[in-house]
Amino acid sequence: AGAVRAPLAGCAEPPARCVCYGLGRFGGCPTARHQLAFLLLLLEELRVPPGHCALFDPAFTTREAAALEQLGLRLLPENEEGKHSVEGSATLFYMVHCGKALYNNLLWRNWSAGALSKMVIIGNSFRGIEERLLSRVLERDYSYIAKVLKGTEEVALPTHPRYLDTFNDTSVHWFPLQKLKGLSPEVWNFVEEPTYQDCEDLEIIRKEDGAEWRSPAATES
Predict the structure, then answer these.
(1) What is the pLDDT of residues 102-154, one digit of tens each?
(2) Contact 88, 109 (CB under 8 A)
(3) Residue 195: CB partners within 8 Å, gap ≥ 6?
(4) pLDDT confidence bin for 219, thresholds 50/70/90
(5) Helix axes 2-9, 30-46, angle to 10 degrees
(6) What does DSSP assign to residue 81?
(7) How far apart are the first and last CA of the chain?
(8) CA distance 186 to 200
């Protein structure tokens, strides 16, 4: 958690709230449990009250949803597909090992220098995404990741032998306002919502996939 403090010192204001996507089935998966534990440590480190942290994962069971609520965390009522607005508040997005489309959708939803400068993303390394994908695929399928790269600061989380699979390829990303203002006007002019029609390996649960959020009162499958 201390490794996150230094990058956040460069942000205009510390996060006042948190959104977590894709935590996974922590009831049966040690990796997901470690990621949840780290999230709780981060909230404590950043002095973000648990009630200001909202989570969504369509994989959560009824018991897992109830456990999160017992911890004081909030559950998002529906699948936003990552399209969550910062709404003027400095926000930490905790998205460890999420699909590229979720990051792309989040950037699209907040596509302005003012909004992006209020975001911190802990998730898959954007530099790693750039290195692994052909540039034409990155620009076609994940254009907002491609466009924001020059306006991004990124620091990798330190590796730990016990948690190699838990936080591998995970970085802290933030978007300094001065860097964003240096991007060309053409970068900001195109704001079409992503559709992923040509994407072959879309790593996202969509609303129409039927994996909608179930409240804790629902029957656990």
Answers:
(1) 999 999 999 999 999 999 999 999 999 999 999 999 999 999 999 999 999 99
(2) no
(3) none
(4) very low
(5) 50
(6) T
(7) 34
(8) 27
Q: Which are the contacts of 139, defined by CB distance < 8 A and separation ≥ 6?
A: 146
Quote the tokens at residue 148.
Answer: 């924001």
Does residue 72 sit in helix, strand or coil? Answer: coil
Query: Is 26 exposed, middle or buried (CB count within 10 Å of its CB: 0-12, 13-18, 19+)?
Result: buried
| pTM of the predicted structure, to 2 decimals | 0.91
Structure tokens at 102: 């979720």
What are the residue boundaries of the structural domains of the chain, listed by start? 17-200
- 97: region left, alpha or beta (phi > 0 left; psi from -120 to 50 alpha): left
CATH topology of domain 17-200: Rossmann fold (3.40.50)
User: Region 149-162: what's the mean pLDDT?
Assistant: 91
Given its phi and psi angles, is residue 198 left (phi above 0), alpha (psi -120 to 50 degrees) or beta? alpha
Tens-place pLDDT, residues 14-33: 899 999 999 999 999 999 99
Tokens matching residue 56: 């969504």
User: Could you give the C-alpha distances from 1 to 16, 35, 39, 87, 168, in angstroms and in order?
Assistant: 16, 12, 9, 25, 15
- Give the contacts of 3 (CB within 8 A, at least 6 positions apart): 155, 157, 158, 172
The SS3 assignment for 51 reads helix
